[in-house]
Every structure is written in C-alpha cells, then in structure tokens.
Design goal:
Blueprint: H1 2-9, E1 13-15, H2 18-23, E2 37-40, H3 44-57, E3 61-64, E4 79-82, E5 90-94, E6 99-102, H4 108-116, E7 120-121, H5 134-140, H6 150-153, H7 159-162, E8 163-169, E9 175-179, H8 183-192, H9 194-209, H10 211-216, H11 241-245, E10 254-261, E11 263-264, E12 268-276, H12 279-284, H13 286-290, E13 296-301, H14 302-310, H15 315-318, E14 326-334, H16 337-352, E15 359-363, H17 366-379
Helix pairs in contact: 1-3, 8-9, 14-17
Length: 380
Amino acid sequence: TLESSLRAAVRGDVRFDDGARAAYSTDASNYRQVPIGVVCPRDADDVIAALAVCRTHGVPITSRGGGTSLAGQACNAAVIFDYSRHFNRVVEIDPTSRTARVEPGCILDTLRNAAAAHGVTFGPDPATHNRNTVGGMVVNNSCGVHSVMSQFYGPGPLTRHQVIELDVVTYDGERFTVGATSAEQLNAIVTTGGRRGEIYRALSELAERYDNELRTSFPDIPRRVSGYNLDALLAEQRFDVAQALVGSEGTCVIVLGATVRLMPAMPQRTLVVLGYPDVFVAADQVPAIMAHRPVGLEGMDALLIDAIRARGMSPEYLAMLPEGSAWLLVEFGDDSAEGSLAQAQRLIDALSRDAVRPSVRLSRDSAESRQLWHVREAAL
C-alpha cells in the first residue's frame, strides 16, 4: 500500500525492488540497514507529496546525500529520499554578492564548476567532492582540504559558516525558510503563530533556558563538527536557525534548497608536500604553516600509505612523496602562478630555518599536483 501510494503521488522514481533496497542499504561506513524503499523526487513538490504519504503511513524517512557518510548516517530501515538523481540543479550563481542557490542533490563539483566560470568557488570540499551532494554537506557540516581558505573570506571553514538560508520542510509538512533572525523578526514569527511560530518559540525558550551552557560548553575551535550547533541560537549569533540545523544529520528537517556563500577561487595553485618522521611532529608544525595562509592543508601518515600499497593502488603516485612517515600537503593559491609560487617559496624558506626541517617536494605542475592529491583521495 505504501509503494502504490507513493507511485500515485510522486513523478520521480519509486523503487521497492530488492536491487534498489540492497544498493541503498549501505554507505561508505561498515553499517547495513535495509530500507523500506527508495524515492528519487524530481523537485520540491515531489518531496512534499512523498513526505505526506510517508506521514500518512507512519513510516520514517532518511535523506541520503552522496552515500559518502563514514558513520552510517545514510543507512536506515526507512524510506530513503535520494535527491542526487533529479533534484540536483545549481539554481543561480550571483557573482556580485558571491552567493549561490542550489537544490539538495547538487553534486559539489557541479556547483564548483558553475561557480568557476565567475571566478568564485565554494570553500568546503571533502575528498568525495565528485560525488557528495551539497545537501549532504549541509546536514553533515562538512569541511575538507580547502576549507581553510574560507577563514580568509568569512566567519570560518565549515559548511555551517557558508550557509545563508535553507528552504526546509518538517516531517509534519510545514515548509519555510530559515536563516539569521533579528529580535524583531523573531518576535513577529512567534506572534504570527502556527507551526513555524511554535517551533521558533520552542527554540527561543531552549536558548534562553540553556544560555550559560551554550556560551561556555561549546569549544571555540575552527572545526567543531560534533553535535547540534545550538550556540547558533544565541542573540549574538543572530538566532540563526539555518546554522543551527547544519550538522543535524537530517534529524530535524528535510532541506529542499540552500543559499550559500562563495569566495574568490584563486585558480593558480602551487603544492608543497612536507615529509616528517611521524604524524605527531607533523601536527606540531600546523600552526606555523597556517600563518602562511595556505588555501589547502591536509595530513596523512604511513598507515594510510600502507593501506594503499596493500591494495595495489597507484604505486607510481606514492613514489612522488618526499621522505618521511607522515606528510602535510600544503597548497597556495593566487590569481597568478607567480604569486602562488612565491607564497610556497616563502614557506619553504621559513621551514629551512626551523629546528624541525621536513623533507620537501615542490610541485609547480598541475598534473603532478593532481596526482599527489590523488594519493590522499585514494587513501580514503
């Protein structure tokens, strides 16, 4: 009955066959939960129609991004909503305001390629950038190698910091837009009432009740990605419900669309690979390296490299790594090749005078740099 009701209500794909259920029972984790069925909606109206059917039948739903979750977030004995098949467009790029509007199933590389035509980019970029969705990044609060550049052009490196507004719908069918909210706007929403007013009132009361804990118990670190971002509900954070929902793993709302910040692409890149005796020594050097304002920074240790060798993957790439048992990949960006190379050389010169001198490989060739980054992506 559930399947037939969904087929009658949804213009997109509805699949309850064993093949689809098996394919959607896993993600990039080691968990397996066989779903009830799979819906690939064509647009927001399809999502709302499918949601109404699931609500009538009393069944849970799980929104699936690219299936790249490492902790089983995309697996559930539920109806899986997959937006990547149809509901996946870049709706608009505004280079003047450096913003973009996207549908939840938009693949990150699709957004970045569209933005690149305007000389801008989306900062956070996990290693799965060619298959993870922006909606998945929102619910997971993703960051990634080049997220550090976001700190130069905005409040921070996480997807949370890049989200301006979200178009959302709750399980009970209430659809509205969330974002930063002034005191006057909050009062108007609560006064208007309805389901949205009820939700905002409850969130406001929660923030007031736990004001001290929200101010003192959330560590002020660049990559805080654990748990709900309830501190976004504080007055000084402008009661930003969008930021509070980022990282909630789809447990509170379905994201139907997102308006996000973009930043200068700095297309000319130079990569420096630094080799250290172990991962602890490498980690100790990160603050000094960050002072040179790289646009990308990633670490690897011998454990990952051994895993790649054990699988016989890309052995020619591994020979490109400098001597060591742990490596930092440091990338610089600029509008000119000369500018990015000069930044890289300043870092190398500074490290040559340091007490801990790493082995160094400077890559000026974009093809070589792609191969070195492939080592990191193959490790995952």
